[in-house]
Amino acid sequence: MAELFRRTGPLIAWMALLTTLLWVAFMIVLPQVMMVDFSFRPSLPPSKIGGPEDVYTLKNYATLWANTIHRGIFFKTIWSSMLVTVLALAVCYPIAYHLAQVARGQAAALLIVALIVPFWVNEILRTFAWFLILSRNGIFNSALVGLGLIDRPIQFIDGNIGVMIGMVYAYILFMVFPLYNAMESLDRHQIEAARDLGASTWRIHWRVVIPHAKPGIAVGCIMTFMLSAGTIAVPRLLGGPRSRWFTEVIYSWFFDGGDWNQGAAYAFALLILCIVFILVMMRLFRVSLQDIAK
Amino acid sequence: MTSSSLLRSFIYLYLVLFFAYLFLPLVFMMAAAFNDSRFPTMLPWQGFTLRWFQELFADQLMGRAVWNSILIGLGVVALSVPIGLAGALVLYNLQSRARTLIYGIMVSPILTPGVIIGISTLIFWRQYFGVGGGLMLAVVAQTTFIAAFAMLLILARLQRFDRTLEEAALDLGASHTWTFWRITVPFLRPALLAAALMAFLQSFENYNTTLFVIGTETTMTLNIASRVRLGLTPAVNAIAVILIALTILGAIIYELMRRAEVRRRALAAEAAA
After folding, report:
1. Known Pfam families for this protein (chain A) (predicted)?
2. Which of A66, A96, B69, B91 suits a disulfide with B220, CB 3.0-4.6 Å?
3. Average pLDDT of chain B to the nearest whole number
4. Quick check: B154 and B85 in contact, CB under 8 A?
């Protein structure tokens, strides 16, 4: 801290410290603490807040466990997000490898620009694009009917499949770029050496490329999982009442059910889930927080 | 055909499929904006029309939503860039053991689901300050995590800063404040500009966080989503065409600026040699 004062002088140092402190306290730490505190209290009318009934309780968490529908949606969200993550990894791995190790010069630069442009298109619009493809009279159904593969259009919207297709599409770029960054730093000579020594393509990937790309794989998986489990945009557009996502249940506690304390408990459960996933991935792939936030 | 050339043709096929997967949905979406059909679809093609654009521009609710998005975006830029700069300065000069913990707290909003940020902001401000959902709260909630992105961008540039420049200015008798404004800030300018642009775009497209804190107002992104949910017309596709065109234009400008910067640096290096 003394370094900051010595380098920038007291005026700038105090301003920087104060601004940072206000941000960390009033935007990051206190709101989270408040949300957690809220989640352990009963929902009371304003007149009873602070009264004898306003005590800490586990009631809101018990509700999540006892309500089989909500509990089911919670676990479905976990599994589906994991599946989205694995699918995104499988789709992106060959592309990232090709960009990082095979393509060169202008071609590589062009491919990267081609990846970035859809990345800047609004998430809602990217999801809407799939809505148009998957809806009842969308392109996909027209094509299937036209080819005579099915008689009647299939309802893809209002099913988990539609939601998951939309998610893989929406978050694919959060997987491609960490993979690409990690693979790019791999020396091409290592791959050539492995090949000269007689290793098969599979073996080269298993023993050389994947171990080197581990931090990128971890970061890509963390981002994709976190975005999938935590999104409300994609399920609200591509899903329906039969394919509810956990975030939608949280939303309805706040704006349909009017029980914010209950909603806070659900939100905290989701946050814990994401933290656990991040910690497990960090341990599994031996990466630090510095690697993730790049 | 040898096995390696077979593998190569597989890879090229995969590349084509991948980029088709990436772009075709966007192309279909844009094409439907010009189709003279009551539904937002490209097929069957009913003829070319611009009426969905006319309908869009005549829509007052959308006009208001876009205006709200711009106001929120400007507010987020005005808060996130200074906070990001302050945070980067603090982290850059921090060598204590607590650095990892402090860094962890400061980047945590990036790894927190957007809905959680919206919810915690909503609860906190209503309980302590009696502030309900609205434009102000949307600015606050979005700034929480966008400032963290801004901080990382600025910090990355700061780490390449040549400290001797600062020391030279101080040795020659310049005040700390003068040195900061005349040496450090100009050096950081590209990162500050990039952070401002990033902050505006992130704010403009945000849905997950904004949904919880916007109250009875609306933004462009929220308005698009509700149009998709509740029976829609191809006016949504017209918005998509405009936004994607702006995105591509932005990408071209950014690329041209980057090339100019590279050339300038090359020239400077030549002059120095």
Report:
1. BPD_transp_1 (PF00528)
2. B69
3. 87
4. yes
- Which residues in chain B have Cβ-Cβ distances shorter than 8 Å to A271? 112-113, 116
Please give the angle made by the CA atoms of B146, B150 and B153, to the nearest 5 degrees: 140
Rounded (5°) CA angle B87-B88-B90 = 65
Strand partners, B48: B35
Distance of CA B61 to the CA centre of its chain: 24
Q: How many angstroms away from the CA of A10 is the closest CA of chain B?
A: 8
Q: Which of B101, B115, B262 to mutate to test the interface with A (most CBs of A within 10 A)?
A: B115
pLDDT tens readout for residues B209-243:
999 999 889 999 999 888 887 766 788 888 889 98
Residues A41-86: tens digit of each pLDDT: 888 777 777 777 778 888 889 888 888 899 999 999 999 999 999 9
If 0-12 CB within 10 Å is exposed, 13-18 middle and 19+ buried, where does residue B79 land? buried
Query: Cβ neighbours of residue A175 under 8 Å, at least 6 residues apart?
Result: A85, A88, A89, A91, A92, A220, A221, A223, A224
Closest to B76 measured CA to CA, from B153, B125, B136: B136
Contact status of A128 with chain B (Cβ, < 8 Å):
yes
* Contact state of B103 with A290 under an 8 Å Cβ cutoff: yes
Q: What is the DSSP letter of A99?
A: I
Which residues 176-205 of chain A have a CB within 8 Å of chain B?
201
- What's residue A202's pLDDT? 84
Q: What is the pLDDT of residues B24-81, one digit of tens each?
A: 888 888 888 888 877 777 767 777 888 888 888 888 888 899 999 999 999 999 999 9
Q: What count of other Cβ atoms lies within 10 Å of the Cβ of residue A122?
A: 23
CB-CB neighbours of B110 under 10 Å: 17
Q: Is A113 on the interface with B (CB under 8 A)?
A: yes
What per-residue string of b and e applies to A168-198 under the rule 16 or more CB within 10 Å gives b?
A: bbbbbbbbbbbbbbbbeebeeeebeebeeee
DSSP A78: H
- Contacts of residue B55, defined as CB under 8 A and 6 or more positions apart, other chains included, come to B233, B235, B238
Q: How far is CA A124 from CA A121, A231, A234, A236, in A?
A: 8, 11, 7, 10
Answer left, alpha or beta for residue B39, where phi above 0 means left and psi between -120 and 50 means alpha. Answer: beta
Q: In a mutagenesis test of the A interface, which of B2, B11, B119 is the best target, namely the one with the most A β-carbons within 10 Å?
A: B119
On whether any CB of chain A is under 8 Å from the CB of B136, the answer is: no
- Least Cα separation, residue B8 to chain A (angstroms): 10
All structural domains of chain B with their residue ranges: 33-268
Instruction: Tell me the β-bridge partners of B35.
Output: B48
pTM for this entry: 0.87
Cβ atoms within 10 Å of B95's Cβ, excluding its own: 10
pLDDT at residue B76, as a whole number: 97
**Candidates 1.10.3720.10, 1.10.530.10, 2.30.30.100, 2.60.120.260; CATH matching B33-268:** 1.10.3720.10
